[in-house]
Amino acid sequence: MAKVGIVMGSKTDRDIVKPAIDMLERLGIDYEVSIISAHRSPEKLREYGLKVEEQGFEVIIAAAGGAAHLPGILARRS
């Protein structure tokens, strides 16, 4: 079964990804939520992106409520 990584920029972005989390739970798909700010923790986000395959993720959902830098930076690094 696929493993999904969900990355949000801050705890306050939980409402943005909640529908995705609800769907993954209904479908019985494993997921892991990480909170990594593209602005406050760019190196941590870079490391996350470089280890996506190593961690077994087949899908990444990235969301941020303010600026949309997080998904783009993560896509570039993974």
From TrEMBL:
**Cited SMART domains:** AIRC
What Gene Ontology biological process does one annotation of this record name?
Answer: 'de novo' IMP biosynthetic process
Q: Which Pfam families match?
A: AIRC
InterPro entries referenced in this protein's UniProt entry, alphabetically: PurE_dom, PurE_prokaryotes
Q: Where is the PurE domain?
A: 2-78
Query: Which UniProt keywords are present, listed alphabetically?
Result: Purine biosynthesis
List the protein's name. Answer: PurE domain-containing protein
| The organism of origin for this protein | marine sediment metagenome
